[in-house]
Design brief:
It is a single chain. This protein is mainly beta and 375 residues long. It has four domains: 110 residues, Phage tail proteins - horseshoe like beta roll fold, CATH 2.30.300.10; 88 residues, Phage tail protein beta-alpha-beta fold (3-Layer(bab) Sandwich), CATH 3.55.50; 68 residues; 64 residues. The strands form five sheets. Strands 1, 2, 3, 4, 5, 6, 7, 11, 12, 18, 19, 20 and 21 form a 13-stranded mixed sheet that branches. A three-stranded mixed sheet has the order 8-10-9, with helices on one face. A two-stranded parallel sheet has the order 13-17. α3 packs antiparallel against α4.
């Protein structure tokens, strides 16, 4: 590996252990992807041959079988970072007549994949339990994968009256948790770490605030730390949502207003753009005004970003790993596009002697909010 960068690869059924030296020696490349609104995934490529331990013992012995747990971590200048804690979903072998060209490709997803296996619709009742309690109960079943729940109570704590209604499980555990999240405008995802073998199961609002990561510098001569960076502005991507809720006594339809600036969608620049699209949500009429407002806020937040960016960086030059679902500052792109951005997704590409990241950014406004950038 690169000087100052150490890769850790662990595999096993429930408690992964460091892989044999022969596996590390055969490793060609590592790719890990994480981001907002998607599951994290990974891909490992190994060199194989007719006489390699991978071909003769590890593959026949089930070492790379689907559902085996995989942990990938990197240590940069003494600072450990868990990139993914997941399970193998596929394996693909590519034999070749050319010496040294045969490969084994292992593909997998984060441990939330194990939550999407069994459909338990109608089998588990949840009497007098709010959504938060149901999520905690479901996540407790995955303690063997080091899952630690981080549940943010919603502003709408809805405890169903067991005399009137007893909610029941719908779909797989993962689908039901995601459904409960969408009902209150929340998101659900698994984030590995901070310790190896630990996974934070986050159920709460998508947070676009907090301290930014070190700035991405472009067109700044010796201070440039990205290899490429480009932006696009789509004015028609921002959408205003309309919804109506029925008043129980009179039966009248009441419109629910949604402000442009919300806790779920703080301004990341000075110039906010007017939405050019209007869409009516028809499925909210059965909800009360509070739940309808929460859903509208979440929908508006998801469609508020008008600026998107993409680029690539070298991790050693940047000085650390760029993390998804966090803020980062941009410098050198001009006053219109400089400033804070939300990191939507990051892909780690690791090879011998090389560690690069490709990334996508987004934000909901033009022109940086401040001329100063935190280093």
């Amino acid at each position: 590996m690169l000087k100052g960068v150490h890769l850790t690869l662990m595999m096993g059924q429930f408690v992964p252990k460091a892989v044999p030296r022969s596996v590390i020696d055969a490793l060609i490349s590592v790719q890990v992807t994480s981001g907002s609104g998607q599951h994290s995934g990974f891909q490992l490529v190994f060199a194989t041959s007719k006489t390699s331990p991978i071909t003769n013992s590890l593959l026949p012995g089930g070492f790379f079988d689907p559902s085996k747990r995989v942990i990938i971590a990197v240590t940069i200048n003494g600072s450990p970072n868990v990139l993914i804690d997941g399970v193998i979903t596929q394996q693909a072998i590519t034999p070749s007549n050319d010496p040294g060209q045969s490969t084994l490709t292992i593909t997998g997803e984060d441990v939330s994949r194990m939550m999407d296996i069994i459909d338990l619709s109608g089998l588990i009742p949840y009497p007098a339990m709010p959504a938060e309690a149901r999520v905690a109960l479901i996540l407790a079943h995955y303690a063997m994968y080091g899952v630690v729940p981080l549940i943010i109570p919603s502003i709408l704590i809805d405890i169903p009256n067991p005399v009137e209604e007893i909610p029941a499980h719908q779909g797989t555990d993962l689908k039901y948790i995601n459904k409960l999240a969408s009902n209150v405008g929340y998101v659900f995802y698994i984030e590995p770490g901070p310790e190896i073998g630990m996974n934070i199961a986050y159920w709460g609002p998508e947070i676009k605030t907090g301290p930014p990561q070190p700035p991405l510098n472009v067109n700044m001569d010796a201070q440039t730390n990205v290899e490429s960076l480009s932006f696009s502005f789509d004015g028609f991507s921002k959408t205003t949502y309309l919804a109506f809720t029925k008043e129980k006594l009179s039966g009248l339809s009441i419109p629910i207003p949604v402000p442009d600036i919300t806790p779920l969608c703080p301004p990341l620049g000075q110039k906010l753009l007017m939405p050019l699209k209007v869409e009516r949500l028809k499925s909210t009429s059965k909800y009360g005004p509070i739940r309808t407002a929460v859903i509208l806020l979440a929908k508006a937040s998801q469609k508020a970003d008008v600026i998107s960016g993409s680029g690539q960086l070298d991790v050693l030059r940047y000085g650390q790993i760029l993390k998804s679902r966090r803020l980062v500052s941009v410098r050198g792109a001009g006053s219109t596009y400089d400033g804070l951005y939300y990191v939507k997704s990051v892909t780690h590409n690791i090879k011998r002697g090389e560690y690069k990241q490709s990334f996508t950014l987004s934000r909901n406004a033009l022109i940086a909010s401040s001329s100063r950038v935190s280093l």
